[in-house]
Amino acid sequence: MRKVLIAATAATAVTAATFFVAGPAFAQPPRPSEQIQDYAPAIDRAADALLNVDLGPVLDAADPYRRHHRRTLRDMARRNDPDFERRMHASIYGTADRMGRAADAFAAAEPALRRAFDQFEHDMAAALYAPPPPRVRPGDRLAPPPAPPPPDQDDDDAPFGN
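^ thats the sequence. predicted structure below, dont judge the formating
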């Protein structure tokens, strides 16, 4: 009997451990900031590739009387700013960080925004499908608007101490 209890306890422990060690099916999706940070190195490599574009032939076509030979965007940017590449890479990662914070803030506000848009949609549908007000023709006498309801006597928030 003791062996059965030990085996049952061990099986329960293994099952619980398997359940609590979350696999990909139980993992939470990554936060938006993590996804943006994951893209930052690819953007950095793409920017490096763009800096290697040879603009010499384009410049030769635009100004045929002057030879530009091989001139890349990197060469043109470094000419006036020797620290250009370091600042560009820092700017890419800094921008990714700021975009990640903004995306996290939007993700946190998403349920409230969804409720507000659902309420707006409901209110617009009610306004569109409500019966139209009666038409007023020139010369018709309009009834005065109804009187406002009397103030609540035990209202502590009354502005003039009613």
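The first helix runs from residue 2 to 20.
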